[in-house]
Structures are given as structure tokens and as C-alpha cells.
Specification:
By secondary structure, the protein is an all-alpha fold. 27% of the residues lie in helices and 0% in strands. It contains one helix and no strands. It starts with 26 loop residues before the first helix and ends in a 17-residue tail after the last helix.
């Protein structure tokens, strides 16, 4: 297995490099969550032009 935090190889339930620990059955879920957030960061958010001036009409 590969540590989702630092990328080091894990032989047991905790990473020897960074100390990250999780049950091996939870590792795929942790990787999926990490990948989900990485993909969200790559998606361009829509940008809306800001108005240069605001005009108030009074009667």
C-alpha cells in the first residue's frame, strides 16, 4: 500500500515515514477522497465580470 499523506510504501497499518495510520480497509476511501478534492481544484470555477460602476436611479 501507498501512504495517502506522503506517498511512502506502507507494510503495516501505519506509515514509517510520516506516522499516518488507518485501517487497510479504509485506505481506498481515503485515496478516493483525496483524489476527489484534487479534481475539484482542477475544475475551473465560473468567473463573473464585476461591474465597473454602479448607477443608482432616483426620481
Amino acid at each position: 500500500m501507498i501512504c495517502p499523506r506522503c506517498g511512502a510504501k506502507i507494510a503495516v497499518e501505519s506509515c514509517p515515514a510520516c506516522g499516518f495510520g488507518a485501517h487497510r480497509d479504509n485506505m481506498p476511501m481515503i485515496w478516493a477522497e483525496r483524489r476527489y478534492w484534487e479534481l475539484l481544484q482542477k475544475i475551473k470555477q465560473p468567473t463573473f465580470p464585476t461591474p465597473a460602476t454602479v448607477v443608482f436611479l432616483t426620481s
